[in-house]
Specification:
Largest sheet: none
Radius of gyration: 20 Å
Shape: elongated
Distance between the termini: 29 Å
Order of helices and strands: HH
Length: 88
């Protein structure tokens, strides 16, 4: 069980990393291409696309954090709440 949750957290973190690297790569290519004129009206579409990517990444980050919480709470001897023995 612990191995599965760890694998899910790692997979989620990997996906987030790949998406971020992909966006950086695409923006880098776009900046390095000289002489290409931007079509008018594309700014609104681009802003909407970036907002969608931001929302998706935020949602994915929340899911990864939830998985990390599950993994940490699933440790042997831990049940998600501090016990009296932890205070000693």
């Amino acid at each position: 069980m612990m191995g599965l949750l760890t694998a899910l957290v790692m997979a989620g973190a990997t996906i987030v990393g790949l998406v971020v690297l992909g966006v950086i790569f695409l923006l880098g290519i776009r900046l390095l291409r000289p002489g290409t004129a931007k079509p008018r009206g594309g700014d609104a579409e681009e802003a909407q696309l970036l907002q969608e990517i931001h929302r998706s990444l935020t949602h994915l980050e929340e899911r990864v954090e939830a998985l990390e919480t599950l993994v940490l709470d699933a440790r042997p001897g831990r049940h998600g709440t501090p016990s009296m023995e932890d205070d000693r």
